[in-house]
Design goal:
By secondary structure, the protein is an all-alpha fold. 67% of the residues lie in helices and 0% in strands.
Length: 188
């Protein structure tokens, strides 16, 4: 085989994917433990790679931290279908508040907030939440239920949860999340 024809195909899920996953895991763990101590050397040590591997792929800590934050914050989660929109949104909000109030998720959310706005000013990590809300509302529509708009759910439920978690407001918990859903339906 001539040298020009001999190429090595990259394998999805190969060594590079494993290293990336280990580095992402290390960043998430370290952020959850102490965001002030997060550094490329500490990430490299935790991931079992050389610091040069991280510098070569991401260039700097902010780029790596933002990539990890967006990936973690936009991960898929199940959309409930209990047969009742009010219950569906309540269950979904319980998951949401439990998820984003975990220390590592809050730290990642704070990281991505200012670093990942697209051209329209929207933050990519909220795109997944809008998709989930749309799915919940479509299920309700399919059952013939009257429902609020996606924007109403974002404004009256999601926005207050993110705001309170980001600013560390006390008593931002499952009960508070449920109360937001209840208020949304009380206004209908």
């Amino acid at each position: 085989m001539p040298a020009a024809e001999h190429t090595t195909a990259r394998r999805p899920g190969g060594r590079s994917a494993r290293i990336r996953a280990e580095i992402h895991r290390a960043v998430t763990e370290l952020i959850g433990e102490d965001t002030e101590a997060l550094s490329i050397p500490s990430i490299a040590e935790r991931a079992g790679v050389a610091a040069t591997t991280i510098y070569r792929r991401w260039g700097d800590l902010d780029t790596l931290r933002t990539e990890v934050a967006v990936e973690v914050l936009t991960a898929d989660s199940p959309v409930p279908d209990t047969g009742d929109l009010h219950r569906d949104l309540g269950v979904w909000c319980e998951f949401l508040i439990t998820d984003i109030s975990r220390p590592e998720k809050t730290a990642l959310l704070r990281t991505v907030l200012g670093a990942n706005a697209n051209d329209s000013g929207s933050i990519h990590c909220l795109d997944k939440r809008e998709i989930q809300i749309s799915e919940i509302l479509e299920q309700a529509h399919g059952r013939g239920e009257e429902s609020p708009s996606r924007q109403e759910v974002m404004d009256h439920v999601v926005a207050p949860l993110y705001f309170r978690v980001l600013f560390g407001t006390p008593e931002t918990d499952v009960s508070y999340a449920r109360s937001l859903v209840d208020r949304l339906f009380a206004g209908k």
